Amino acid sequence: MKKFSWRKAALVAAVVPMMALSACSSTGGKPADTGNAAGGGGQAVSTPRLKVALITHASGGDTFWDIVRKGAEEASAKDNVELLYTSDPEAGRQAQLVQQAIDQKVDGIAVTLATPDALKDVLKKATDAGIPVVSLNAGEGVSQALGAFTHFGSNEQLAGEAVGTRLAAEGYKHPVCVIQQQGHVGLEARCAGVKAKVPGTEILYVDGKDMTAVQSTATAKLQASKDADVIIGLGAPITLTLLKSVTDAGSSAKVASFDLNADLAQKIVDGAVLFTVDQQPWLQGYSAVDALWQNKRGGFKLGGGQSVLTGPSIVDKSNAADVLKFAQQGIR
Asked: What's the farthest any 2 CA atoms get from each other in the chain?
């Protein structure tokens, strides 16, 4: 397999905002807001007011989605967009939210495709109605087939393989990869990537909507699996909970992660977490809204039919202090 380049991925991600100007609650960790709550700080464009729906599979209290939404709000402020943000982790209800956006005659839809089969029919209704669609975060492999003209996110299989390669190089042989939403294509791909490079990897499914259950399930697994040498969370709140499980189990397992928030960045600075793989969710939200505006503005389609990568980007002890200041602003 072609060797994955962190440098190339980081460069692609860095280019996204310039192009654009340039494994999650109904609201993430803060209340939902219709309309444009962002303060972009710059002069808004003079193009006609647009209405864009951002529909995700977020589950309650996951700070990841606050960051996605913050990027979307900032793009909305710049682009004279009324942003309608809704979400639901249950696939059927997410599909209903897409239908609701169609009924509202929005000018564009940005949607996550964690469970693509459930959204296939309703997204066809959107494109049949002439509503442009972009996808973000999850579903890179099926995005184009479901009618999205581009996708913003990380290649999750490659991200998982890169994590597995790093863990193998550091001598880890028995990772436990914790999936907080069974059937989520992106989360499954992450752990599959790790397992491809470290065959001794075990998958542990937990209920990501119940952190008490996450902690107890992971604790029991670590108590039963004495050879587990690293446990991997696929989201910052999950990983922070896994730190408690390691302590509760009296385990010597190290902790690694995907995704990021300020608390997790601090844990990496402190040495409690080995590293995380950041997919830069602020860029996903910002770019998705901005791409829909650009499409209305001039028929532009970013990506040339290919996904636009926003990651993976490694955050470890060498750069976590620099990233932390942005995480504290709620954009990393």
From this structure: 62
